[in-house]
Design goal:
Layout (H helix, E strand, L loop, with lengths): L2 E5 L5 H11 L4 E5 L3 H7 L11 H8 L4 E4 L2 H7 L2 E4 L19 H13 L4 E5 L7 H11 L6 E5 L9 H6 L4 E5 L3 H14 L8 E5 H32 L3 H9 L20 H14 L3 H28 L8 E5 L14 H11 L3 E5 L5 H9 L24 E3 L3 H5 L4 E4 L11 H6 L6 E4 L6 H7 L2 E4 L6 H5 L5
Parallel strand pairs: 1-2, 1-4, 2-3, 4-5, 5-6, 7-8, 9-10, 9-12, 10-11, 12-13, 13-14
Helix pairs in contact: 1-3, 5-6, 9-11, 9-12, 11-12, 12-13
Length: 482
Amino acid sequence: MVKICCIGAGYVGGPTMAVIALKCPSVQVAVVDIAQKRIEAWNSDKLPIYEPGLDDVVKQCRGKNLFFSTEVEKHVAEADIVFVSVNTPTKTTGLGAGKAADLTYWESAARMIADVSKSSKIVVEKSTVPVKTAEAIEKILTHNSKGIKFQILSNPEFLAEGTAIQDLFNPDRVLIGGRETPEGQNAIKALKDVYAHWVPEDRILTTNLWSAELSKLAANAFLAQRISSVNAMSALCEATGANVIEVSYAVGKDTRIGPKFLNASVGFGGSCFQKDILNLVYICECNGLPEVAEYWKQVIKINDYQKNRFVNRVVASMFNTVAKKKIAILGFAFKKDTGDTRETPAIDVCKGLLGDKAELSIYDPQVTEDQIHKDLALSKFDWDHPLHLQPMSASSSTEKQVTVVGDAYEAAKGAHGLCIMTEWDEFKTLDYKKIFDNMQKPAFVFDGRNVVNADQLREIGFIVFSIGKPLDAWLKDMPAVA
């Protein structure tokens, strides 16, 4: 029986290993992590992450050929294939601070693998890592191997949160990069044989190590670039009276462009886009390519601009101040169908409003009150360190200005304005007449995801701002200051 161990029980490791276990009943899969509470959650009825379809997959396999454990060294020692899916946060100090990936946890994992291994192993990069990470890991393993042979593979994930299980069941592609040596090719084949249990062979792509590592960064950079492009257009649409939905639809009809990732919004979030682009920028700078680095920096700049623009619009529309005003925040996760708040635009928007002394009432169907308060207190990039290394009792000076409530109606009760930050389906079907009746007047809706029918809300009596859509008279009379 082939034994697989995955170090890291997070958003990538947990779902990926669960699907491998389901699709490969003859393979034994162990997911290990030093975070006791996280492993306990994986072994309970309340999994540590929300992902549609994940519960069913885990329950079918757990205890049969899928195991969650804190016995890291034991399972690594027994494994034939070791996936490493640990945090690769952006460095906050030292060389490359603010851009480069911090490989502390990767290096620690590699040293541990070398220390406990008694047999040859295939070590698979599953975390998003900088180009040439494999070379560094290879050196650590080689110099600590005691004669044991290791082969390093790059197998980046291309999952979209909210559809991760379907993405795993039916991937666009599985990418495996390895050394162009007989041993490297044998390792590629061994991992390819695992995925071939359910993935058609023509969708399993094999490359050299560096191409696989760079392909992940490139894919995320291209997707983020599309979002920043349409968001840049959304500002122009508002200025000219064009409708960004009509513009993006017309652009997306061009088969060379296509319709995906052309929805204007308050900005992109998630664990990968910003981090990977910053990483790409750093790699470009280190390789003497400042013009290329500047190009990709602009994708981040537009994303920050979009969030700032949204905050400015809220404040300007409400007589240039939100001090002591209650603002309802609907949605805190970075996208619907996930409880993930990593780099969610809601954090920056909330911090911007709190900076102007607003009082926030926040509702999200999947994000806990503790997580919201923690996110608003953490410094930039702190979220990407393992839980046990994050500030234990993060508390914000603005915590008294923030209330987390159990539904949208409670959030909006008595509010001056309402900001839609996540495109949860339930926000499309709320009784907005009921919400309007219980809000202060004039009542404002700032739709950061274009989920509501602005004309219908205006008929009710709301003043509505929708990203990239023609401005109503009130907003033109009170322009946002950049």
